[in-house]
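DM from R.C. (forwarded with permission)

"hey, sorry to bug you on a friday — could you get me a structure for this? deadline for the figure draft is monday and I only need the backbone to look sensible"
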Amino acid sequence: MVKRIKLRTLFIGGCITLFFLVLIGRVFWIQVLDREFWQAYAAEKRAHTSVIKAVRGTIEDRNGKVLASDVPAYTVVVNPQAIAELGIGEEVISGLHELLGKPESELKALVEAKDKDGEYLKNREIRNEGWKIDQELRDKVDEFIEKLKDEHDILETGVGLITEQKRYYPQQTLAAHILGYTDRDGNAIMGLEKYFDKQLKGADGKLLYQSDGKGVKLPNSKDTYQPVVNGSNFKLTIDSTIQYYIEQAMQKAYDEYKPKSITVIAADPSTMEILGLANMPTYNPNEFWNYASDPGVFFNHAIKSRFEPGSTFKIVPLAGAVEENLFDPDATFMSGSIRIKGYGKPLYDQNRSGYGEISFLEGVKRSSNVAFVKLGYEMLGPDRLLQYVDDFGFNDLTGIDLPGEISGRVNPTPNNASENATIAYGHGKVEVTPIQQLTAISAIANGGKLMVPHVVKEITDPNTGKTTVTQPKVVRQVISEESSRETGSYLEQVVADLDHGTGRHAYIEGYRVAGKTGTAIKPDGKGGYDRDKVLSSFLGYAPVNNPKIAVYIVIDEPADAAGGGAAAGPVFKEIVSQSLEYMGVPKVDDSSGDDKKEAQTSPKKTAAALRTTPDLAGKTAAGAREMLLKQGYNFVTVGEGASVISQYPEAGGVLSSGQKIFLLTQQGDQAVVPDLRGQSLRDALEILNLLKVGITVDGEGYVTEQKEEKLNGKTVVTLSLAPLNEYGEDIPVAPAAEKTEEEAPE
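My reply, with the result:
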């Protein structure tokens, strides 16, 4: 008996010893051999990360109108388990179908969703119809939820809303091809949203903390905080009002001519700030998913399409011939056709019978191909012509701050007479983009400077308050200032001559307009050309004596192969006439016809009479005032600083008669706002932007009153405006243009 007890005791003791040995071994394995794994596992269970979402930056136009911003959005969710327990599935399906437009069969699948074990799920988002809906629809869903609660006397319905953020474009389709869009997950897809995505989206912040097994934060938690970096805010060069004028005029032409597409770009030629850019057809970035069947609407032809330009390209040989002193407006030639050495066939005018023996100035006005072959191929010669093509930037990117820009191609075969000759009138081995065309005409308008176009005016980092302003950038001086003015005066006759000018449909009563039409017959894809399909365009700027806006319009395949003058000219006229009045540019009284006659008969004299703004930045205030007084300039000094910090208009800009120069002599946060009464809205906005004050505007035309106030420590100026005829002056109304015969393709 004793022996059995001893054996049992020994057995039990051995088992206990073995158990402790195994336990100790296991502890040794976990704490020593497998220590790193379990340490990482514990840290993972205790450590938590809370993400602080960054706010995507806003995009505004040049006057502070919001074009894109983040706004609250709401996603509809359903709880299949709760809905099944309440027995209200049919009511939920029917009600959400009526509100969201989602098919009932798809809603039924969501409301009755189960897991693999046959248990109802607890949370399902309703995509895409109920995903990130707006406030108006959210309110309707809320009303539906309350209705269910009242009818069934319940506290929960199984239907709910999650508050999120989404990108919203309050101006709808306005400037869609500039802005681009982000998808519903916040990913930037195209346009400025894509190009500046890194700066716009910022960086999310993080809070790392420790918790217990139930997820409750530990009192002694060692927190790590990574601050959120909100996205930068962008102010564009775009003027929403001018953009609106552009899109309205395009829509009229699109409805009338039913083309494949229309593209319009407008810029301030003195700075190459893009004032407006649009393509038709267009899209609404708030509803981008509705255009999946027609992806072509997203294509930005302004910077991505390349084509034979036709006669708008004639500005290059004209400017080159003027610069080289080869253009004599009174010299004559025989129009109709021309034979060139090394090519057996003649090259023709658009009117093959010609106009007889005419002057070169008339050849420009009639857009004679023969005239430009003589200017570009015979007088300049192929090498010099191609050098001017390069100098005007047609073989390079313009560098515009939009994604996807392509370059033009002007590459005739060396020693091929016909290819080199036809380049002179924009045909054959020449392809350009709309933005290149606009940049080239702006160089003629601004005194011969090829500049980089841009759409971003300034970028503000909300985290530091630092603002980076885009400065105008000159690529090169293509032609002299005198040659640019002379070239512009000849282009003015293309519009001003209402008998022979191909651009007569763009004539605007009271404003001097320079322009060039183009009607390019499109290639048929088989090595020839299809005369029933043309690309019609107009390229110009105004006013000639003080250019404020340059515009390029291109209409791809208008009905009845309408020419550039007839189809695109009226679009230019509508956009520019409205824009100049909006800018407050005064009309000139040309009823006597003296100015018009002088411009037609003596363009060099007219061009030489214009004045430009001197460069005053960095000069002492006293020195700048003395210089301006001696030279007879009208000016206003803003502030009492010792030196000139900035000026408006910028140096080199052409001044209209009586236009004031504003000199800023203090930092923006110290400056006193000058009396702006009588100034145009555009000039007033530029001056106030120099001072970096807030701006609100009431009305259109000229400033009649101004009021200053402090809001959150910042000066805000309210401008009241009225048209000239309400400010003591009369604005003549331009009569409707008379219908004239449509010009032949150029």
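R.C.: lifesaver. The chain has a mean pLDDT of 85.
me: no worries. The two ends are 127 Å apart (CA to CA).
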